[in-house]
Structure formats: C-alpha cells, structure tokens
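User: I'm putting together a teaching handout on how sequence relates to shape, and I'd like one worked example. Could you take DNA gyrase subunit A from Thermus filiformis, show the sequence you're using, and then write out its predicted structure as tokens right after it?

Assistant: Happy to. First the sequence, then the structure tokens directly below it.
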Amino acid sequence: MAQILPVEITEEVKQSFINYAMSVIVDRALPDVRDGLKPVQRRILFGAYQEGVLPNRKHVKSAKIVGEVMGKFHPHGDAAIYDALARMAQDWNLRYPLMDGQGNFGSLDGDPPAAQRYTEARLSPLGAEMLADIDKDTVDFRPNYDGSLKEPEVLPAGLPNLLVNGASGIAVGMATSLPPHNLAEVVDALVAMIDNPGITLEEVMRHLPGPDFPTGGKLSRKGIKEAYATGRGSLRVRAKVRIEEKGQRPMLVVTEIPYQVNKAGLIAQIAGLVKAKKLEEIAALRDESDRQGLRIAIELKRGANPQVVLNQLYKNTALQTTFTVNLLAIVHGEPRVLSLLELMRHYLDHRKEVVRRRSLFELKKAEERAHVLEGLLIALDRIDEVIALIRASEDAAQARAGLMSQFGLTEVQAQAILDMRLQRLVALEREKLLEEYRGLMEEIARLRAILEDERRLWGVVKEELLRLKEKYQDPRRTLITEFEESFSKEDLIEDEPMVITLTAQGFLKRTPLESYRAQGRGGMGAQAGRAGEEDEAVRVFVAQMHDDLLVFTNRGWVYRVKVYDLPELGRQARGVHVRALLPLAEDEEVAALRSVRGLDKEGYLVFATERGLVKRTALSEYKNLGSAGLIAIKLLEEDRLVDVDLAEEDGEVVLATREGQAIRFPLSEVRATGRDSQGVTGIRFKREGDRVVSLVVLSPEEVKEDPDLLAVSTKGFGKRTPLSEYPLQGRGGMGVITYAVSPRVGSLAALLKVGAASEGADLLVLSKRGLAIRTPVKEIPRYSRATAGVRVMNLAEGDEVASAFVVKEA
C-alpha cells in the first residue's frame, strides 16, 4: 500500500525549481569550458561523426543527422536540433563554422533556413578537429538517455572552440555571452601561456588584442581589458562605412555591420528615421549586397555633411551596438564567470589531459603490438620446430599450449602464431616485421618520454596548436580602434555658418547663412527680423555652429553659450530673449558678442569701449567660462562696451569713431591686465559727443598683406581703403580721417577688415528695422580715406545701418 507523506509545498516548489534550473544551466543553455559546446551541439557533432558524415565524404540530408541525434542522444524536438545545426553552419554567426552546409541555411537578413529535408550538411574540417582522437580514450563517455548507447561527456576539442567561436545562451537567472576571436591570435596567446604559465593579461593581449567578429566591423579598444580581467563588460561595435561621391552628392557605403545585427532590420530602421523626418539629409537608401559582399548605399542630399549624418546613424541605429561580455561557462559541473586567463588555462589543461590519455592509449596499443611481433619473430627464427609442433598437435588448444611451454610464449603470442598466414614465412615478410618492430620500439620510447616528462607533454600540445594555426589561420576581420563611446550634441550637428542677429532689447536668433542670398550692391535687402515697436536691430555677424558665443553685458560680465544652442529661426522671426538662455540680472543688457572656437589656446581678448578705452587680457583667464559667467572688464559709469576681438602677440589695433576718425597703433602699447580692469585710452575725440563704433584687430601676417579696411555708413554707403593709408601712431592720439561723414551719407556705422584678395567674401549689412543685404565685397570699390564711397544698401526713410559683418569665403 502506497504511503502518503505530508510535504511543505514551498520546500517542494523550491527544490523542484532548483532541479529544473540546474538542468537548464548544465544540460541545455551554457557551454562547457573545455570544448565550448552546449549538449545539443556536442551531440550533433558526435552524431555526424558516428554516421561518417566527415569533411571528405559527401553531404547528407540534414534531416538524417537530426534524426540520428534525436533518436540516439537528444530526445527533444527536431526543430531545436536543426536550429542548432543550422547555426553551426552559418558563417555570419560562427567565426569558424563547425558544420559545412549545402543549401539555404538562412541569411544575414534574418531569413530562416530551408526545411531540414531540403538542406544537406557534413562536418567542416574544423568540426572534425573537435572530434580528433575521440576513439583513443581521450575523454570519458556516459550512458545516453535510455542507457542503450554511450555519448562523450566532452569532446577532445583540438580547436579552442570557446575562444574562437564564443557562445551565447540564456539559462535560469544567468546568461552567457562570449565573443569570438581570431584563431591565429588565440593560438599565439595559448602558446605564450604554455611557454610562460605565469603570463599576465597585458602580455596575453599583445597576442590577443580583442574579439574578432565574423561580420567584421570596428571595435572600440575601450573596455576590452576590463572585460578580459573580470569576465564582464561591454564593448562598442560599429559598422565599417566609407564616404563616396555619386555625381555631386555624397554617399555613405556600409560594407560591414556589427555582429548579430539583422541587415534587413537595420535598413528598415534607417528608413523609419527618414520617414519620421529625423534624418532629412538622406535622399536614397539601397541594399546593393551581392555575392561579392555586403553593401548598403545611403545617398545623401546635395550639400549634406556625410560625417554628421554618419554620427547620427551611429547614435540612432544599429550601425553602432554594444556587445555585452559575460564569460560564463560550466566548470566541473558548475557555472562560473571566468577571466580570459582562466578560460585559456582550462582549455590548455583539457588539451594536456587529452594528449596524456591519447599517449597512454597509443602506448598500450604499441606495447600490445610489439608483444605480438616479438612472438612472431621468435616463431620465424625457429619455424621448423614450430611447424613440427603444430603438425603433431591434436587441436588448436594443444598447439597453443605446446607453443607456450616449448618457446616461452604468452597465450596472446601463441595465438598470433597460430593465426599467422603462410606468406609470412618468406624472408621479405620477416624484414617487414623487423622494421615494424623497430618503429614500434621508437614510438614506445617517444610515448613514454612524453608521459614521464611534463615539458614534453606541453610541447606536444603546443606543436598541435601551431599546426592548427598553420592550417586554418586567416586575417583578422574586425578592426580594433579608438572612437568616441558616446556622441556629444556637437557630433550630431553640422558645423555650418549661421547669421547671429541681436536686437536692442536683447532678442537673439540664428539663421542659416544660405537664407541670405547675395545681391548686387545698392539693393533694398531682405527682411532679417521683426522688431517690436520700440525695438531695433543692433548687431549682426556670422559664426559657425560649433563656435562658442561670448555674450558681453553692460555690467562688464561675459557669458558663454554654444551657437547651436541659440534658437534657429527664419529671417523674419524676432528671436528669443537672451534671458531665456543665460542667467542675466534684471538690469543687465547685452553690450557685445564675439564667437570663438575654444578658450584653451594662446592669445588675448581685446576690448574697446565707446569712450575710447582699450584693454587686453589673456584668453587663458577665461578658460573656465561657462553659462554662469565671469567678470570680463571693469566699465566706467556712462561708458559702454563696443566690441571684443581675438588678438595675437605683436598685432595691431584700429579704433574707429562715429564721426569718421580712426587710429592705428601697436597692440604692444596696451599692457595685458586681469579680467577686473578697465583698460587704457586708445583714442581721443576731436568733437564732443563722438564715440567709438568699431574695433579692428590685425595679426602680424595680416598687416604684412596690407588688407583693406571697409567702412560702412549709417545711410548705407561704403568703400574700401588700404591699411597702408592709415599711419601707425602711438596709442591715445586723435588719429586720422577714415570716412567723410555728412548728412547725405550719415555717420560711420562700422569699420571692418577684408583681405587684400577679397574674391569670394561678402558684406552682410543689417538695418535697424531688421532688413539685411548680402553683397560681394569685390563690388565695393576702393577709395581714399577722406571719401564717402558708393551706396551699398538702399534704406527706407528713417531707417539706418545698425551693424555690418564680412562673411569670408568658405
């Protein structure tokens, strides 16, 4: 009668789940550290080997292999077995496929393999290396699921499979993810470990610098060492992309994609971003892959920056992925996270044991054969006596006993003599037996030496690894390099020129320079902003998107903001108030703007104020400048900052006033002072109420070129005058006439420098009512200093020029 025992349900569920989890971990999902195979993979390879489906034999139906494996070793679904078989034949999944498939085994686009009845397979040469010497007692066998057959617990693994092919799998509460590597590099690292058992990770990485994925791509060097040292980490992998040109359009061509990325899914992902208008620079997308290799063509629109688009693709698509490293494997029946050195050591120890057991097996066979040969040679030396004894014996048992007693032979030797064919009696056969015996004795001596000397044993392991490398090595596919692990905002924005516009009430905006089409001089211009009833435009200049915009205020402070952080608005928009971008005080207003490309270089900032003061401060004093601001200059009451510019040592300065006076003096006459200083007198005024309107800073190289100074009046007139017409004076004088001011042409609005060769440069002029005109500089003629020039911009009644800027040729 069955006995019913009460059981705590929580304990029963706990124990049952533990049993299930261990079954999944050990017998299904995780690879053995020695051969790098999961049970189903090991059974497929062994089943194919037993069926004789070898690399030198013809392919057989995959269904036949699956059936044999399922019936003898793996009593699970045939779909799971076939999926594992197909994966071992896919060269985009395994760096070194273990099965050689014939037929449709799927594709990089994620297409599934054809049904197993249609495809054929056999062991690949490297798959056969995994089973080499399995019939020489090199590994332990255990009963199969029903006890009718034996299956190997592990394969001899002549190929370091776990290292070269990696592995992936999800168990219960744990997962493994081992990256593949290049065979030649792995062998070199293993040989180095044999030669130096105490080898360090740094020394190993000289031979094995990092993973080598079957699909190639580019791998970031960052993170590799940490992953190898700890067994855990993440690696950045990118596609290989080159920039080509089709007609006048740039084109990105993807030739390799990251490991385990679905090509069709990647293309659909890019197309989705284009459709959602997140990548508007892409004009066409085509998959041009063929038998020659992978090729995805991404055609860009005319004028697009291919590097910026590529960075956006890296950030938003699977053109850049993260490969998670988790070096988890089964060691002595338990799952363990291992370092790279531990993985290598476990494999080498396994190979050492395989070579030792193989040597023992071969030694035993050689000794047994030598023993038989010794008996045969004794019999041949006394053949007449042997024949007489056999003829006189009543049966085989009596003959065997007689041979053993008369000649001192063992039963095995006696039986071999009885089984000997008569042709062995000829002299030639005796020589063959002697030659075979000598060869066996040499082999026995070699095998005993291997077994008695561990160094020789390791020498065999090393020799076989080097032979494997020589036979199967191939070039590295994945390029290990340095690249940014993450993208800054700047990486994703094209560094294009932008027109920065500021109004008197502090409204800022940026507009693409291409929005301002060049016109002939004397035009009315185009609307560049919509000012309020009591607002007017006061400043315009051009800066690159990646520039830092320095915002100087009436309190003498300076703030820093990226040009790309300004709102991008159309020509007619008013802009956004600067207080929405920077933490200005209530009574603080923008006094001047300047764009720079970084503050970590040598040089100076030169300041000019309305009252004629000039100041020079080293750029390094502003290197910690951020959006919170720093003191920039100490301003006197009723004085106002006019402009700020970058300067080099030994340069020159030109200050120009509203009443048309200008002074040119060496920068060396302005002593460099700290941020919290007011500067020194640069120019004195001839007339009461005059003020400085422009600052021009010239480098020593520019002075040598004798550039033009371009004057623009408030009524829209302009002219160019060579710098050489301005005498070099001492600081603090009244200067010379630079512009003939009058009621008709107005006062001086701006004095700008243009290169002696001004071809391609444009003058951008902004009126107080927000109209802007862009005119080629070469259309503005040269005149002497005391002249008014020609009309540059045709202004409406009551409007006047607020600002001007020279747009240099790109």
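A couple of points you could highlight for students: Residues 340-381 form the longest helix (42 residues). The mean pLDDT is 88.
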